[in-house]
Design goal:
The chain is an alpha/beta fold and about 240 residues long. It contains 7 helices and 7 strands, in the order E-H-E-H-E-H-E-H-E-H-E-H-H-E. The mean pLDDT is about 90.
């Protein structure tokens, strides 16, 4: 029997890779999209039935061509996880205004095109899931997120519109807000991390309790994508227990 297909955008070496591993373990064939060809190929060698599709999500024609290749090679996705993100951490006077458009294409416009590409087959099948990973930038604006938060807020609103449209058609759309720093591999060990990422000496928690664990995030997304249709969640907020909110 052919495995269901899970398409994941933004497959880096932390959350995206964890999502690929979790859904592969759950019986899916994985289509991984990201710009880094070497990293994707390495993951494809590591994860059973995972396939690399190098692509710039912000290049919409390239993205649509890639989705069509995935459909032809693996089949139409039963699950779409939009994990790709483009961000700018600067104030509106200091940042390059063109970043806003780039961030919007990757975070929001690409979600629209991806949903249009996969939802019709999900509707016909009478099942499917579209999961979007977000953060608290989608709920509020802060000065240094001036060119980032508006694109994440639009992403979340678009996801809600999709959920209201597709829910009655038995396609589950969910938005996962990750309120906290993710323990990404590129941060390195504690003694090599920048001061702003290292809690003060009187911090009462262990480092692994302060940062969100990528595998734990992937477990939550997997659970959400497989909820019983009588108890679907749209807006899920997850955070480390020590996170201030």
């Amino acid at each position: 029997m052919q495995k269901p297909v899970c398409l994941i955008t933004g497959v880096g070496d932390t959350t995206g890779a964890a999502l690929a591993r979790r859904f592969a373990a759950g019986g899916y064939s994985i289509a991984m999209i990201a710009r880094n060809t070497d990293r994707l190929n390495a993951l494809a060698m590591e994860i059973e039935d995972a396939h690399a599709f190098p692509c710039d999500v912000g290049n919409i024609p390239e993205l649509m061509d890639t989705v069509e290749r995935i459909k032809k090679l693996l089949g139409s996705p039963a699950v779409l996880i939009h994990n790709a993100v483009a961000h700018t951490f600067d104030t509106f006077l200091e940042a390059d205004p063109t970043d806003l458009e780039r961030n919007f294409r990757v975070n929001t416009t690409s979600l629209l095109y991806l949903a249009r590409a996969v939802a019709p087959d999900m509707i016909n099948a009478g099942s499917g899931a579209i999961m979007v990973t977000g953060n608290t930038a989608s709920h509020r604006g802060v000065p240094t997120y001036a060119l980032f938060a508006p694109t994440k807020a639009a992403q979340r609103t678009l996801a809600e519109a999709l959920a209201r449209d597709l829910g009655p058609k038995k396609v589950h759309v969910g938005y996962v807000t990750i309120d906290g720093a993710i323990d990404v591999t590129w941060l390195g060990p504690d003694d090599e991390r920048p001061d702003w990422l290292v809690p003060p000496g009187d911090w009462p928690w262990r480092r692994e309790d302060f940062f969100a664990d990528a595998d734990a995030i992937a477990n939550e997304v997997f659970h959400m994508a497989h909820q019983h249709q009588s108890t679907w969640t749209f807006d899920l907020v997850i955070r480390p227990f020590a996170e201030k909110w």
